[in-house]
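Re: that backbone. Tokens:
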């Protein structure tokens, strides 16, 4: 029994998003939004968090920037490292690194549709090469188990430079030595390559005995077009669950009521939320409401959480400070998209958004927020005192 089986059900998780779910975003999501304010005070974090995907090649070659997605903080547990690639040996070795870094699970990306990834046979490209997909799963499982049985990274064939890098990564983040237990394997995929073949495809994946299969309800060809097909997810879920594998549905969930309706109709064990969490970490505050409604099989609408402008501003500052805590300030432009996403749903949000996406550091962000308050809220209020995270 892995951590997956100890999570409350239905599981409400944060989907992996390249360029978005970095250590800073995961930190603000994991620590809950705006503890000082009353309206959204309740604790609300996803039950499980995925990293952005990381290339197994980058891990095994020790590319410095390639390792960036594997940084995390203690508060982010349970956290699952997502990997992509197409060489079973590299997955075998990367499984050792992920285990040594103290992650709670390892997920294989078999769903990324981007040209760079899929056309080289990685990500959703693996849907076309089921034998290779199974070889990768088998190699990863072997890596996880060999590590649990005491094999060292050097014995797994990793170069001394990589072994040292792992040691330093653990020391830098103050991660305690993880127990030698095999991490659970999971797979995140799509409905098919250019047509919906999820029943056959998931039957194939089940042979690799993952503990969880997450399904984004689109084919690769669809990219992000059209609606996620939850009927197809439901059909596949009924089949997969018979084999004791948990199923997480994913795609287009934008509100608590949609969560509830999708879970009830598809009977999945949980869901992953992606784009709806952009600029809206508060969406996870509704976890308990979702679970209660699902348990009661409620057909009535539940209230969606209201987020005040004050909470948004606190969060913007907290996220900006958190970004600087984990990244060099020269990389602040990567933070701008988040700032833009937070700026909606209050008066003059568009104008603030336009300014936010030009900021270069948290000081600029604070200045803009102060100007907004003095111009639009209360000229005499001295506010925005959120401390650095
Ligand atoms: C910017 C962005 C980056 C993504 N990166 C990844 C990734 O690294 N790994 C992955 O499995 N899925 C990735 N996805 C797909 C999401 O995890 C999710 O499957 C998809 O967005 C559908 O869910 P949603 O409608 O809740 O956003 C990404 C999606 C977006 C929008």
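Recovered sequence:
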């Amino acid at each position: 029994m892995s951590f997956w089986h100890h999570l409350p059900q239905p599981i409400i998780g944060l989907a992996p998003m390249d360029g978005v779910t970095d250590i800073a975003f995961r930190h603000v999501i994991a620590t809950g939004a705006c503890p000082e304010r009353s309206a959204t005070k309740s604790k609300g974090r996803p039950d499980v968090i995925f990293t952005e995907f990381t290339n197994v090649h980058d891990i095994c070659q020790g590319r410095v920037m390639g390792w960036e997605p594997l940084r995390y903080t203690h508060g982010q547990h349970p956290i699952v490292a997502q990997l992509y690639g197409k060489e079973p040996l590299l997955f075998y070795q990367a499984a050792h690194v992920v285990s040594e870094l103290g992650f709670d699970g390892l997920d294989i990306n078999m769903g990324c549709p981007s040209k760079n990834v899929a056309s080289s046979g990685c990500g959703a490209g693996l849907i076309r090469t089921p034998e290779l997909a199974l070889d990768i799963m088998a190699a990863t499982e072997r890596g996880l188990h060999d590590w649990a049985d005491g094999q060292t990274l050097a014995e797994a064939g990793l170069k001394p430079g990589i072994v040292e890098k792992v040691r330093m990564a653990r020391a830098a983040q103050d991660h305690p030595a993880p127990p030698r237990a095999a991490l659970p394997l999971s797979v995140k995929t799509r409905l098919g390559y250019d047509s919906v073949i999820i029943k056959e495809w998931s039957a194939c994946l089940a042979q690799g005995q993952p503990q969880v299969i997450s399904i984004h309800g689109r084919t690769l060809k669809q990219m992000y077009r059209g609606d996620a097909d939850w009927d197809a997810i439901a059909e596949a879920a009924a089949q997969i669950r018979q084999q004791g594998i948990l199923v997480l549905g994913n795609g287009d969930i934008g509100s608590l009521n949609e969560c509830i309706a999708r879970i009830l109709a598809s009977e999945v064990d949980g869901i992953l939320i992606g784009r709806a969490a952009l600029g809206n970490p508060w969406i996870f505050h509704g976890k308990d409401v979702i679970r209660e409604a699902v348990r009661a099989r409620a057909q009535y609408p539940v209230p969606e959480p209201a987020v005040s402008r004050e909470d948004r501003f606190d969060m913007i500052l907290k996220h900006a400070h958190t970004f600087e805590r984990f990244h060099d300030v020269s990389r602040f432009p990567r933070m701008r998209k988040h700032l833009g996403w937070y700026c909606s749903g209050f008066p003059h949000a568009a104008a603030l958004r336009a300014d936010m996406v030009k900021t270069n550091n948290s000081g600029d962000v604070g200045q803009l927020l102060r100007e907004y308050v003095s111009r639009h809220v209360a000229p005499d209020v001295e506010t925005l005192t959120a401390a650095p995270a």
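The radius of gyration is 21 Å. Confidence is low (pLDDT under 50) at residues 34-42.
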